[in-house]
Amino acid sequence: MLSTRAIRRWTWTHKWSSLVCTVFMLLLCITGLPLIFHHEIGHLLGTEIEAAAMPADAPRADLDAVMRTAIARHPTLQGMFASQEEDDDRVWYVTLAPTPDATAGFKQVAVDARTGQALGEPSLDSGFMYVMRSLHIDLFIGLPGMLFLGLMGVLLLASLVSGTVLYAPFMRKLRFGEIRRERSARAKWLDLHNLVGIVTLVWFTVVGATGVINAWADLLVKYYQSTEVAAMLAPYKGKPPLASPGSLQGAVAAALAHERGMKVAFVAFPGTSFASPHHYGVFLRGGEHVTAKLLKPVLVDAATSQVTDSRELPWYLKTLLVSQPLHFGDYGGLPMQILWALLDIATIVVLATGLVLWWRKRAPARAADTASSSRVRA
Question: In which band, very low, low, confident or very high, does the pLDDT at 178 lie, cut at 50, 70 and 90?
């Protein structure tokens, strides 16, 4: 049984942690809803790249030819990354930039993985989904925005814990799911808030926790590069960079031969942040649905196409890679997407009713202040 003092402390924690983060959580829920269906919305808007249907055993284009096709579209740029989506290996997405370590001026060319023909150029910095994704991830301000939203996620978790602690003694007086329709409007709003809140508690906790983890993504990757990657590249320290990298096809073939049964997720070109001036960084994923979320880096000497190192990702990056698809319901296909969307909408109801409760509680105080001011002026 909670003491009166404990109830006051938990109430204060729940009130202020909720009030500070609610507006931003509403923003994240609203922007997160279309992101759950980003592929489906892309098809409706015509922004998804469509590859022609061919037999599953159709021959694959040489990756060096794929790169030549992409660079022919932008001859002044050079390769940074080549990637494929988890559920569609018919298309290579080649990212180009003025230099391997560029931070702006990117272009992306989609190339058919069977024919080697260009399919189009997805937009990287415009469109409806770009706006939704940027608002959801970093508020258009990069790492500071990510860390700020991560802090809001911590406050959300505090509000969920404190709300659960307060909910237990409160519900001893009511049947589960009861809405006191005969009571005041505020009581009905409170019952609705508590009901939807406890129903969505587990989901909201999972999404909030994975969101906090995702907010640290950039810092975790930088730490990995400064520790694990630096150790993998130690034998090449001090050597001059390559004037021209060797075969991309040879590097990918060497990586796949070294890690049999895996598939290519993306390839980082020499000089980029996920490789070195001397290596291709070939990042492979597992062949099963669950293991496809986890990556394994393979460093391949860009001059000789020899594998120089390959090791498992550290636990913190594995946690990050698992949390990212879980955050958006990217497990289990359309049924899970629909479930995630329904729970997202229910969460919007929780947040909105919480604001209504706070506003209605302030109304009598505002009225009393107004009346007092009127008497003083009289």
Answer: low
